[in-house]
Amino acid sequence: MKTIKSVIPRVAGFFVIMLVLTSVIYPLAVTGISQLFFKEQANGSIIEGADGKKYGSAFLAQQFTGNEYLWGRIMNVDTGTYSNDKGEALMYAGASNKSPAGEELQQMIAERVERIQEAHPDKAGEPIPVDLVTCSGSGLDPDISPAAARYQAGRIAETRGISEEEVLEVIEKYTKGRFLGVFGEPAVNVLKVNLALDGLLS
Amino acid sequence: MTNVVIQMALYCLILVGLAIPLGAYIGKVMNGEHVFLSRILVPVENGIYKVLKVDKKEDMHWRKYAACVGVFSVISLGVLWLILCIQKVLPLNPEGIGGTSWHLGFNTAASFVTNTNWQAYSGESTLSYFSQMIGLNFQNFVSAAVGIVVLFALIRGFIRVKQKGIGNFYTDMVRTVVYVLLPLSLIVSVCIASQGVPQTFRAYDEVDLVEPVVVENEDGSTTEVTKGVVPLGPAASQIAIKQLGTNGGGFYGNNSAHPLENPNPFTNLLEMIAILLIPVALCFTFGRNVKDKRQGRAIFLAMFIMLAAALAVIGYNEQKGTPQIEQSGVVYTGAEDQAGGNMEGKETRFGIATSATWAGFTTAASNGSVNSMHDSYTPIGGLVPMLLMMLGEVVFGGTGCGLYGMLGFAIMTVFIAGLMVGRTPEYLCKKIEPFEMKMAVLVCLATPVAILAGSGIAALLPATADSLNNPGAHGLSEVLYAYSSAGGNNGSAFAGFNANTPFLNVSIGLVMLFVRFVPMFATLAIAGHMAAKKKVAVSAGTLPTHNAMFIFLLIVIVLLIGALSFFPALSLGPIAEYFQMTV
Questions:
Q1: pTM of the entire structure?
Q2: How many domains does chain B have?
Q3: Chain B interface includes A162 (CB < 8 A)
Q4: Torsion over CA of A46, A51, A53 and A57, rounded to 10 degrees?
Q5: Residues near B42 by beta carbon (within 8 Å), at least 6 away in sequence
Q6: A17 touches chain B (CB under 8 A)
Q7: What are phi and psi of A75, to 5 degrees?
Q8: What integer is the mean pLDDT of B492-505?
């Protein structure tokens, strides 16, 4: 007990010094460096249109259901958590955390399959790439696999009245390969493809 | 499968390749030897001693060392708890987020002080920038450092002969933070910020959705949501240390699966290697500092063999997927132009290989950050991470605490092997006597006791059922995973489980404190008693602790104690679910 009491003052002082070093100086230094050299990246990678309108963060998914758009991963949309100063609800999303071996997810996937097959008569008989029927880990996955993107090219082309090649070209343009050719998986950025199709991306 | 094998092998290769030189560096730093950063950092170090009037030559008795660790942790717990509860009136809160409840505050404070970083909260909606940066970020540094300094106290216990002291708490802490954690965090944070991880104090941004989302209200009417939120904050600096310090508490609720926390495979590589970098390096530091590199290599190999086996099982099961997803072939789960397999809860850019490797790394280390949702793993793919935590977080484990936990098992192993051949057990030329054995038992058994008692009580309470996100066997897995995560000071979760209730917050908080501090004080006691002993000469009767036989025995003992304690519980959870899945 005596030992404990005797160390309290110095340990408390030590606590304060460490706090300043690791939680004030260090984060401020990183903020300084980041804001100086990677301003756009450090502020959420917002995609701004020519009109100054903010179309989204390059890293956060938006939900697309229209036939003219490339669809992304299944989203667990959340409109209840965030709102702005005017009280308007803001969209966000989260994971499903459903067991992949459970009946609940099995039924949910069966419904998604039905909806997707209906929208893609040109792909009758072809199996649907798994990314299109599953929810991602963040719920905000900005990407979809190349297989899942190409699966939709026919539908997008027909709805927009352009050729399938044009759609595939845009998809190709916004596909990122593996890091150093090995790590991770190739991924197509859904928002960028759709903004490009709408002609909003320079 | 080839893709999975190649990626996993390369990740391990990079990890070990970086850990070996880092191990030597940490060994030098902690001995106060000259390193390449000395010229810049010695003045910083001495400045801190001067302000605090610390005598850096003081050699502390283990009781004083333990008192410093204890007092530091109690202050940490109190201050963090207070910050969380009153964050509403503190600065750096552009979103005007209110204080947490007393029990969520307690749980989160206990969780960060014990290096667990269990997330009963969701960062972006529950915590202000102040709470994150001053509260959590600080504990990410110091709770990691406390684990490391206790390890070094133990190492000194082994090498010292007939001495009273086991080192100096202040110099150990300062050197760990200033020479190891800060420089590494600086490198990682700047790299990930350059790739798109936010690092700013601005309020959350608002964007216009390209296609508005139509939400159906309860009364049947519909609302159109036209805007989306982009949560920001000083994220990169905190994410770097939460990975390096085996903390794991995400800046965002969905942790490193969140695209702003981990935007691409490059940031993922950095963040994932950072999980195990220091724990692996410390194995080599251990060998160097006890002046017998073979001892460090033996411990490393025992851990690595278990990690490799775990990775193989997770990778195989996740790539294989489940019949529920495949829907008799209507859904394509092959690997042509996609990752394939079980993609529920996984990000496209990471696929199976990178997600499975992370799952193995983060539960082997007591990190607990995730880049995919473990709740959505296949039954056996999710069993392995759970088992890694149940083993007591000794497969590399937390920074420092993983290795001293494993050394507890090593002591246990020489004792049991000694019983079998009828010789006095010795480890590193020190006799293992009843006192050390009692303490080693505390180190080894704290985790199984805490997990089984905690999850057993929780499973009996009717209210726990309301927290479950999945019914049946998977529901039990969710409870079991929660207490395993707390009992291993890991912090990852089957995240569908709603742990933010008074009972769960308090009980999980207590489990975390118990499994952190009981083994820690036991380890310091072992260190103190070891340092006071004389060295015994190696003789023909000494059991070598660096050969294949010892590695094998050590693995067997770890599995014996860890796995067998949990087999009944696991068979009711994931194993039962596995058999349900296949029928």
A1: 0.95
A2: 1
A3: no
A4: -20
A5: none
A6: yes
A7: -110, 140
A8: 90
